[in-house]
Amino acid sequence: MIFGAHQSIAGGVFKAVERGKQAGCDTIQMFNKSSNQWRAKPLGTSDIDQFLAAIDTTGVTVATSHTSYLINIASPEDALYEKSLAALKVEMERCGVLEIPNLVMHPGAHVGSGEEAGLGRIAENINRLFDQLEGNSVTLLLESTAGQGSVLGSSFEQLAWIIEKVEDKDHIGVCLDTCHIFAAGYAITEPKEYGATMKKFNEIVGLEQLKIIHMNDSKKEFGSRKDRHEHIGKGEIGLEAFRNFVNDKRLENVPMILETPKAEDLAEDIENLKVLRGLVE
Ligand SMILES: [Zn+2]
Ligand SMILES: [Zn+2]
Known about the structure:
Layout: E1 3-6, H1 13-23, E2 27-30, H2 45-58, E3 61-66, H3 78-97, E4 102-105, E5 108-109, H4 115-132, E6 139-143, E7 151-152, H5 156-165, E8 172-177, H6 178-183, H7 191-204, E9 210-215, E10 217-218, E11 229-230, H8 239-246, E12 256-258, H9 267-279
Parallel strand pairs: 1-2, 1-12, 2-3, 3-4, 4-6, 6-8, 8-9, 9-12
Antiparallel strand pairs: 5-7, 10-11
Helix pairs in contact: 1-2, 3-4, 4-5
Bound molecules: zinc ion (2 copies).
One zinc ion binds next to loops.
């Protein structure tokens, strides 16, 4: 199995790779720019060279990037979804330049315009995105959400609906987040429950669409529709659910990435990775 954690790019994009090495990651997830600003400082040649060299020397791969939290391509406001689309295009291009194969995005929130309108806008904007990109090598991954507020993407049906409408099928996929699916009401703790949930996912979305799994326990209870990450085995999901994931042979090539809280010394990542690897039978 391939294990990793989200790492900070503070100090430069190459720093995320070095932090990954320090934490004992096989692979990492990272932002490609500041996650809470629209602005993106252009990547210089030295940023790119340093980044690719860090991957070479550490042996740590970069499985995926994650988009800024500001992006909402489901927004009913023209100004906001146009701004979001432009920002998303920049992020796709930055991932291309950095040779990062995937970019995880939250599908978006309909903010009162309704589920159908929101989903339609997401699919339409993804098609517009791919039309605007030239020589794109990056796969856009829709992340399953907890379904808080008007956030879309909390059901496998919604994810499948969007994918069905996307024309460029080679560059669209899914990222499942254990905390989010649990909060959205998909049981994963008992082996039987896990089996049923994965069967459902395979039938509705298709396991071949699954490119990344976010491994997070949940501070909030099953079906709460709240998105609060907890350390592995310390939350409402519990250790047994993670045993199901790490021993599922179908997921051998799907990077499993932590997004759990951590301090600068990355001690929590080191511990959580030890816990996950210890569950492999
Ligand atoms: Zn996310
Ligand atoms: Zn996540």
